[in-house]
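Thread title: Can someone regenerate the structure for this chain?

I was given the following input by a collaborator and told the matching structure tokens would be attached. They weren't. Posting the sequence so someone can regenerate them.
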Amino acid sequence: MTTHHPRTRRAVLRASAVTGAAAAAAVVAVRGLAGSAVAGVPTASSRLALAATTGCATLTPEETQGPYWIDERLRRSDIRADSETGAVQGGVPLTLTIRLQDAGAGCAPQTGAYVDIWHCSAQGTYSDVSANGTVGQDWLRGYQVSDADGAVTFTTVYPGWYTGRTVHIHLRIRSSLDSSAVDFTSQIYFDDTVNDTVMASTAYRKSGTRTRNASDGIYDAVNQVTPVGSVAAGYTATFTALLDFGDGTAGSSGTTDSSTGTSGSSDSGSGGTALVRAELAGTTVAATGRGRVLQVRLRTRERLTGRVRLVRHDDVLAHRRWGWLTKGAHTLRLRVPRDVAAGPARVVLTLADRDGNVRTVRRRVDVPRA
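Best answer:
Regenerated them for you:
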């Protein structure tokens, strides 16, 4: 009698060589979508069969996003500093290159994808997290768009550790920032021999027992890299992510704010948006005798921290943070720089409460001439 064991999603993604129906299942597991049988468009099975013939059918395992994801929308290659204060995180330098390959196109480089990374400091804390006392800070977070070689390169510091987790970096890949046909999260791990060397250096020393790769319940050896270098000179590492991008294309589209129904707006967050008790009343950019000023009107029903960014395409035109806002009505004002051209833009308001719940609301505005 044959016993059939169900395959987990991760087991499917780990498959090193798959064809036919198994190939289709693996692609669907990554994308959550099956390829359509349209003339000129490869099906899921034919895409992965093509990848198998090129010897690159080991798809990157998808892993948990974790509790510390914040959609900061900071496009930058050097993520070591806080974008407002300029304070730089200490630690051993790390240059991390992430290469994206499309399993549905014979492992060709995937251009135009949005790649976010975020990780803890040398002492094991994350920015913009209430429990770490870092709300309003954004060091060791950022994203880039993959180039013609399917690559992005980040300058950061080697991550530290915290109780229960091995050394790791979080990774999120999207086909756009606002609405994605592809939205994939995973984690990158490092050889424990290198971890041992780095964790013995001054910036990383602390009490407690570090969790090693083999003891981490999330760790997957498929996602491990071995950095090259030294504590004195810094390390370099390259991670290759193989996904089926299918027909997902880069670009954004307007969504709907779930609380207001306003076209071209969106409302999202971590921990549940309903837990952050505030309402956005309106956003305008007005020309005054002293220049242009963005005004964000809101009412808070608890003490919250606030951050406002004015964004166009992938560029942050202006930003400002506010400390604890008391309960009541507020008008947050942000001066628009003189070199910002007139035209449509997007306001991104991020609110956080004492428990670490985060809510992000986006609204479109028109910037008048200076």
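The domain at 93-243 is CATH 2.60.130.10 (Protocatechuate 3,4-Dioxygenase, subunit A).
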